[in-house]
Please model this.
Amino acid sequence: MSSVEPERLPPLPYGIPYSPTLPRRIQDPQYAHGGQIDADWAKHGKYFGARDAPSGAGGFQIRPLNRPKKDQSLKALLKRKRNDDNDDEWDVQYRLGRPSESVPWIDLVAKWGLQVLDKAGFLNLDLGSPESLLAPQSRYLPKRPQEWRGDAVHPVFRQDMWREVDDVEYLNLKPAILLASALLDDPTTMCVFYALATPSCWEDFIDPNVGLCRRLKVPDSLTEKQQAHTRHSRIGLSRHYSTAIQNWRDKDIRSDYADFFSDILDTARTLPSHIPPNFETNLDSALLRTIVLFAAILVHEFAHAFRMAYFSNPLGVYQDEPWIGDSRFNELGHALMLHILSGIPVANFFKPPLGAPTRTKAQSDAYAPFGVFVMEKWHPWMPAGNGFLQKGIKKDFTSPTTHFPVPQRQLYDYFTEDMWTVKVPRFGLDALRFVKIPEWASHRVPGPNPVEPAEKSAVR
Model:
């Protein structure tokens, strides 16, 4: 299988190489002399390996791990020698597909494998820590009331707003709190909260399934007066993120942080042949993923708290939360993240096997050992019911669900001085929106049954 030739194509963001070219049809791996079948890369990735493209310009080649025995005649050997790039007997450097057979993995990992994702820049980068984890600051900071203008932490995230959080734990959370503050205290985000609290921005409509609904008409911008903040709220969250950050801070004196990465591989029953190099020692990249994911949770949960305080729903006539845009499900936290960052960040994960500790999934979400992806449809292919609009159901049921891996370099740049002193003041939150690289996406294509599209769905 020939490789992409990146030197003839425009460069991808953050220096990401082009992905391996995956065929739509492959020889059935279940049978030695089987015919061609449609590839489902969540199932068939494990049958393929990859290497760096020989051109040296980036990108990958792939080949099946098992091929029929080659013609060893002198004529065939001479032909292969003349065209080394097409020789399908090269050594595999990276394994595609699920890192273990005994547990289900998220589509992106099941498709590309951990080693390819790592080599491409979606997992660990040897960059160390950014020059400052405390760099984020909001665009609204210079316009705040005088009494709290100098504090980059948003008032709702001050230490006295947290339950039973001591000075050490608050220090651990500070990078995520500053990033969440910068996202929250920005005109792009304020437009949503203004719409929530302003009846003139409410639009009622009737859905044949849900009944009377309300959609927000989010303004594109606000006046100085409209940007004024309102009351505080109290937030209580799980301590898994704080524990992960504390363990990272203590990694030079205790092994708890590194032990987690070793243990999670064992829990997932990961095959040694599928583990990226230095997975258990390159630990700074995972810290940045933890901080970004926790910041997103803070903003998400604050959206719900704000809605409960300000969004009018007399006598329970409407759904608890409003709709934003063309979403079929009124989940305000997800809708806000989609509005300000173009996607909802999620840690790549596997389904823990029977007998695994109950905290396995929650810890994986906090430590994010396998990278991060963003999604746009957070409840794909859901039927009408339980708060889902009838409108838009056909489009939902016929379109794929897509996951994009997040370049680790983008997360690193969130904590650089240049991002907050140059790029955000110039471009606003557009500078932070998640980069979506189509070449690296996984698409779960709905199955043939329009009533149950998840049945026989496949990853492309």
